[in-house]
Amino acid sequence: MSDASDITSLDLAALLASRVCHDIISPVGAITNGLEVLEEESSEEMRTFAMDLIKKSARQASAKLQFARLAFGAAGSAGAEIDLGDAESVARGYMASEKANLEWTAVRVLMPKNKVKLLLNLVLIATHAVPRGGTIHVTVTGAAADPTFSLACTGTNARIPPHVQEHLDGDLGGAMPDAHMVQPIYAGLLAQAAGMTVRISKDGDTVEFRAEPVAVAVA
């Protein structure tokens, strides 16, 4: 398989489902472990620890599911718009358990859903550019109908994730897509549907993901 357009809708749905499951398995597993401790332990200290673990993991699972609902879900009927403030809220919730800090500079407006979904998927991809942690600064400029997104990822050993640009462009390089590849593949499909293009650049310890309307990017 060499092109993202060759992926069937069923395969894409399965890969995205695997991606969501990957995110929530860990906190849900921690909740299960905490409940087992509550059942088996009589130590008040251990029971307090278990309850704290359950609360923390439940918040993480909820945040990741709320994020997935906007980033991957239908989020309304065809042609629907999404409040950019809601996107910021779910992105902050998701990033609360990640190594990198999130900074968000954008006016709260209604924006076409595929553009918002693209932005959220780029947030996920951006975390891989700063694997040791750092800061991801999201900036949204331009009109709501034709925005430009910039995600500046700054941190120690910041890097452009391998093959991500190719996958964003729909080039699979002959590889069979898997749950690890589906993020940039799906983001690339969203960019195409939204009339945008995504480019990645690196300057020192900063990697930038920049999504622009196609007409602007080509000029």
Please count the beta strands (DSSP E, at least 2 residues each).
Answer: 7
Arithmetic mean of pLDDT: 90
Return the domain count.
Answer: 1
Number of helices: 7
The dominant shape is globular
CATH topology: Heat Shock Protein 90
The low-confidence parts are none
User: Gap between N and C termini, in Å?
Assistant: 31 Å
Overall CATH architecture: 2-Layer Sandwich
In short:
Helices cover 50% and strands 19% of the residues.
Protein model, in words:
Strands 2-4-5-7-6 form a five-stranded mixed sheet. The chain has helices spanning 9-40, 44-71, 84-95, 113-126, 164-168, 182-194, 214-218, and strands at residues 81-83, 101-105, 110-112, 135-141, 148-154, 196-203, 206-213. It is of the alpha+beta class and 219 residues long. Helix content is 50%, strand content 19%. It is globular.
Tag the structure with descriptive keywords.
219 residues; five-stranded mixed beta sheet; single chain; 7 helices; alpha+beta; Heat Shock Protein 90; two-stranded antiparallel sheet
Task: Write the SSE topology.
Layout lengths: L8 H32 L3 H28 L9 E3 H12 L5 E5 L4 E3 H14 L8 E7 L6 E7 L9 H5 L13 H13 L1 E8 L2 E8 H5 L1
Helix pairs in contact: 1-2, 2-3, 4-6
